[in-house]
Amino acid sequence: MKDVINLNDSDTSISVFKDIVRKFVEKRNWTKYHTAKNLVQAINCEAGELSHLLLFKEYSKEAIWNDEALLTNLTDEIADVFIYLISLINSLNLDLSQIFAKKMEKNKEKYNLKEYNNGLYDKK
Ligand SMILES: [Mg+2]
């Protein structure tokens, strides 16, 4: 297993994330708690923590990058959401790449370029 500290997007596959989260959960004997319901609720809780950081505030991207504490809090909560999402995928034995590809095809049809262009809905 790769060292968690040295991961980066360009050379880390999804299976590495899945293995790291699976082993983390198994070593703590938490698998019994990682039901679909509990994990969906945990994702919602972490998404709420992420949302709360920006509630009633307007930060530009530059302002976020210039506020080290805020950036740390945001990235921690983004990671929490991702970790629980990976655990949900593990618990249901899903292949993220396959479900991603399938949903992106649906999105391409739903938000087709004929009707949706530059974020503006074309009512013609
Ligand atoms: Mg959190």
What features would you describe in this structure?
With 124 residues, the chain is mainly alpha-helical. It has helices at 14-27, 36-54, 61-66, 68-91, 96-110; strands spanning 116-117, 120-121. Strands 1-2 form a two-stranded antiparallel ribbon. Strand 1 (116-117) and strand 2 form a beta hairpin. Helix 1 (14-27) crosses helix 4 and helix 2 runs antiparallel to helix 4. The longest helix has 24 residues, at 68-91. It starts with 13 loop residues before the first helix and ends with a strand. The model has no long low-confidence stretch (mean pLDDT 93). Magnesium ion binds at residues 46, 49, 77, 80.
Q: Would you report the number of β strands?
A: 2
Low-pLDDT stretches: none
Q: Could you say which small molecules are bound to this protein? A: magnesium ion
Overall geometric form? globular
What's the helical proportion of residues? Answer: 55-70%
The total number of structural domains is: 1
| Lateral arrangement of strands in the main beta sheet | 1-2
CATH architecture descriptor text? Orthogonal Bundle
CATH level 3 topology:
Helix Hairpins
Summarize the biggest pleated sheet.
2 strands, antiparallel
| Topology pattern, helix = H, strand = E | HHHHHEE
Distance between the termini: 53 Å
CATH class wording: Mainly Alpha
Provide the gyration radius in Å: 18 Å
What portion of the residues fall into strands of 2 or more residues? Answer: under 5%
Structural class comes to: mainly alpha
Helix count, DSSP H or I runs of 4 or more residues: 5
